[in-house]
Amino acid sequence: MFRTVRRVLADNELDEASVAVVMRLFARCTLLTSFQDISNADVAMVLDVDEEAAEQWVVRSITIGLVNAKIDQLARTVTTRTRYNVIGIDQWEEMHAKLQFDKKNFGSVLDVLRNAHRA
Description:
Elements: H1 2-11, H2 16-32, E1 37-39, H3 40-47, H4 51-63, E2 67-72, E3 77-83, H5 89-118
Antiparallel strand pairs: 1-3, 2-3
């Protein structure tokens, strides 16, 4: 099975680590959409990370459109508005496009770092 998964990733030019991050984001979204309001402390406890890291995961989930929520930094809570109930082809294509964009950006950053290292 893992060979098949790796082949699918390779055939679609997807990085295994990037896909793993997206899958973790989906898992975080399950937590976020189980409650209308959840404290940063509760998110951190469930994710087994500190509150700052938990907030960063929430921000990433919101940024890529996996969850529609707002963060109240003063109250240290996350309020969920809506979520995707089903991940359809449109959402997969959107994620693919975002991963390709990230891949291109990371490649550019890597090129800059390589050039700076050579200098």
